[in-house]
Amino acid sequence: MNRLASLAELSSRSEPFDVVIVGGGASGLGAAVDAAVRGHSVLLVEQADFAKGTSSRSTKLVHGGVRYLKQGNVSLVLEALRERGLMCRNAPHLVHSLPFVIPNYHWWEGPFYGIGLKVYDGLAGKLGLEPSRYLNREDVIELLPNIEQQDLTGGIIYHDGQFDDSRLAINLAQTAAEHGAIVMNYVRCAGLVKDGPHVSGVKLHDEETGQEVEIRARVVINATGVFADEVRRMDDPAAKAMLSPSQGIHFVLPREFLPGDTAIMIPKTDDGRVLFAVPWHGRVVVGTTDTPVDSASLEPRALDEEIEFIFTQVSRYLTRDPTRADVLSVYAGLRPLIKADASSTAALSRDHLISISDSGLITLAGGKWTTYRKMAEDVIDHAEMIGALEHRHCSTHELAVHGAIATPAGSSHLHYYGSDAAGILALIEIDPGLGEPLHPKLEFLKAEVIWHVRHEMARTVEDVLSRRTRALLLDARASMEAAPVVASLMAQELGRDAAWETAQVATYQTLAKGYLLPD
């Protein structure tokens, strides 16, 4: 992925693209991969960085949705379980099986949850992970030594998927590019181009250079997540809102709060949602909440009531209760929920919706990371019809994602790069100084920053510390201290001056302060 070459191609291009996609999150990147693999010409633009919003702020789980069984939505569970299996197979460097324990504190919980999880196992079929089973009290304590033991009767263990969301987003962008797509971050859709009543392209603004260009397209897909209604109103100012955004927050705690490699699933919190405590990158991710919000933001912030809710819920299940001083980072994400007549966002649809306006603008809304591939298949099928493109078979269910390589569990953190890890190690061979960590409390290496700039289109310190690595989520304070080192390395690669470095560090540290809990 080369940003300068892509900009030059856009400026000189006279032929329309088959498909232009606005939005560089899970749904947009998945659609770009699908369309490019089918052989269509594709342009994807993202106003900020890939996965800047919702798609980098998940619970880091690839799941069928145990709670959807309770709602009777078997078809959604079936689809998600199939997609979970495909993700494990097609991106093994990023997606893996993780054991979850549901601790039982009442006699009826074992049979109640056990039967549901056996159904969950059965629905997964040949793409299933390990089968669920009952645990006695001693088994639960052995797996979860920090679990609250008073009244504990036993538990149930089942398996679901875990992944690194923004790393998968970067790999999808690379996959799309390898199949001929042009993918660009920091290029904003400033408006739509119309021929009469029909959408025929997009007006683009490069956020770095200020350059503006009009691009023609046979079909335009709006895959902007929580911002989808804004793009719809570029087409029709009177368009009614399709989405009802909901905010979820997560805490990141030190590993001692959940030693071992087993997650906790709390099946019912005070607001009726499930709560997870999940080992991830040597830390523990705890969440999530479900709070309706009035408007979408690129940088949502945790609300006081959400913070207290998580402290209250998780403290019931751990022998050592976390305090504010223990929280390494707190992050918030917005879910693009499809509007429905419901009193609570927990009941709104997580399934995806494809809407086609009178002008031919296609909007892909809703969904979740687990089903990104199926969402992409569905929307490109529609795009071929709306854009009068040749219908071509979707083959992404068999497509290995960039970097896909089976790596042994427990290896260096570089295994998240898959086959690209060899390239990072080669940089260290040339310059051993690049093997130094960015910070004593972070495992990420200087060589990774060079790789991010050269091969992953990282443009800012935030791109590196928030999404190429996960330093911001894993330890916000340490990431702030690492920012000057990252800025210096990036400036050398990008040809930036000292003023750029200073501005980048200041901008990043202001951002990162929002990931710290106030005392």
Keywords for this entry:
ten-stranded mixed beta sheet, alpha+beta, D-Amino Acid Oxidase, Chain A, domain 2, FAD-dep_OxRdtase, Helicase, Ruva Protein, domain 3, flavoprotein, 519 residues, eight-stranded mixed beta sheet, FAD/NAD(P)-binding domain
The gross shape turns out to be globular
- Give the CATH class of the largest domain: Alpha Beta
CATH topology of the largest domain: FAD/NAD(P)-binding domain
Number of helices: 16
- Work out the helicity level: 25-40%
Number of domains: 3
What is the CATH architecture term of the largest domain?
3-Layer(bba) Sandwich
Radius of gyration: 23 Å
The separation of the N and C termini measures: 42 Å
Q: Give the full name of the CATH homologous superfamily of the largest domain.
A: FAD/NAD(P)-binding domain
Low-pLDDT regions: 341-349
Class derived from helix and strand content: alpha+beta
Number-wise, the strands total 20
Tell me about the largest β-sheet. Answer: 10 strands, mixed
Mean pLDDT: 92
Q: What fraction of residues sit in β-strands? A: 15-25%
